[in-house]
User: Which sequence fits this backbone?
């Protein structure tokens, strides 16, 4: 048995809350001295003005009114509404367990999490490694894996991938958990006839019915339903992590399910962390054309009408407050638009401010490989391509560690 010397992070965990729209002028020119851009007014909706026009100045007002408004706007206009939360008959079956995984450094479990709905049944397989030798339950990183499972989240560890460096995660005192998103529903447009849609959707589907990103987020919550029951896991310190389409999913999972104590969005781009207003690369028209199943019907109507959306993605980031939020970008990922990913964090920060927490307000767009981790919203711009790497994971864990020492 090994012991780890890491300090257990004390992630903040909190309760629900709620939003409208006014113009928030933004000087993009203040972002980076190295790469100046013209001052623009993105006319962002204000997370802190209610639909009734009232200014939100306290965390109580945010939680009581505005947070629910904002969440509802995202359900209605973008991600859709899940027809079910935790199904009554959700089942957990530990189908594999080994105390001597990773050369004795971890306990491995594979858990079949299954459900049944009016239209059929389904299951996801959670792969979990818990560090051995800890004196307390382990905080956990849960990856929503959007790449082939065998090559990326291999429970045998015969195949190792930087996409999920489970050994490194365990070595730092965190439990490493992952599931394959396609277990919930495959990533294809088949008119919502398979997976969890088939199990739970009622006809007719509407323009507000959930899309695939919301379905995967639902799966992350079912994985969390298991994790909170495992005595080896600290239920109050589970982070949800995703890359690209998985990063969009992680943000939505964290917005919908406040049990996640930390949310990590890696290279999530359009309809993930990146602001839609002023976005270059992938726009709303592109994403709906390429992936018509990811979002709801209403979102299709916002093609080339970004500025008419009653929300923008900084408000999705704000829904994570006051929990930890980490946004990561890559220099060669213009399609995702790193600067607009950073700006979501900047403009979500006033909501963190209601809790007396520091976000990214006043922070300059950083140089590559110089993470900004001082507050409750972290950000880095990694040198390189659209990918999830060991460098990214190292930064996520540094951020979680650091917070624990505050
Ligand atoms: C792209 C898509 C992005 C991103 C990416 C991925 O093709 O345009 O929004 O989600 O796929 O998931 O790798």
Assistant:
């Amino acid at each position: 048995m090994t012991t780890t010397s890491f300090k257990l992070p004390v992630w903040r965990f909190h309760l629900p809350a709620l939003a409208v729209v006014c113009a928030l002028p933004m000087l993009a020119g203040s972002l980076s001295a190295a790469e100046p851009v013209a001052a623009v007014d993105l006319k962002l909706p204000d997370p802190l003005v209610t639909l009734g026009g009232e200014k939100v100045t306290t965390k109580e007002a945010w939680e009581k009114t505005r947070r629910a408004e904002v969440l509802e706007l995202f359900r209605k206009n973008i991600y859709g509404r899940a027809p079910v939360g935790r199904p009554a008959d959700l089942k957990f079956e530990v189908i594999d367990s080994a105390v001597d995984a990773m050369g004795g450094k971890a306990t491995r479990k594979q858990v079949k999490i299954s459900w049944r709905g009016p239209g059929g049944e389904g299951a996801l397989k959670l792969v979990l490694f818990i560090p051995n030798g800890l004196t307390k339950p382990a905080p956990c990183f849960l990856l929503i894996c959007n790449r082939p499972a065998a090559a990326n989240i291999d429970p045998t560890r015969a195949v190792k991938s930087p996409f999920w460096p489970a050994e490194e995660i365990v070595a730092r005192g965190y439990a490493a958990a992952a599931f394959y998103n396609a277990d919930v529903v495959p990533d294809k447009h088949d008119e919502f006839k398979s997976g969890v849609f088939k199990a739970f959707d009622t006809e007719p589907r509407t323009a507000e019915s959930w899309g695939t990103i919301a379905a995967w987020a639902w799966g992350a919550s079912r994985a969390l339903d298991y994790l909170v029951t495992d005595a080896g896991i600290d239920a109050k310190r589970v982070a949800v992590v995703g890359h690209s389409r998985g990063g969009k999913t992680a943000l939505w999972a964290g917005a919908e399910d406040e049990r996640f104590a930390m949310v990590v969005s890696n290279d999530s781009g359009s309809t993930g962390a990146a602001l839609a207003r002023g976005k270059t690369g992938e726009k709303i028209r592109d994403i709906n054309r390429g992936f018509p199943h990811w979002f709801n019907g209403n979102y299709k109507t916002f093609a080339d009408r970004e500025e008419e959306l009653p929300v923008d993605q900084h408000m999705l980031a704000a829904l994570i407050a006051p929990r930890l939020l980490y946004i990561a970008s890559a220099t060669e990922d213009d399609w995702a638009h790193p600067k607009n990913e950073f700006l979501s964090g900047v403009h979500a920060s006033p909501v963190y401010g209601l809790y007396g927490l520091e976000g990214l307000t006043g922070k300059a767009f950083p140089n590559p490989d110089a993470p900004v981790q001082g507050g409750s919203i972290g950000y880095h711009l990694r040198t390189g391509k659209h990918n999830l790497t060991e460098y990214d994971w190292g930064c996520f864990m540094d951020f979680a560690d650091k917070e624990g020492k505050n």
In short: The chain has a mean pLDDT of 91. The chain is about 30% helix and 20% strand.
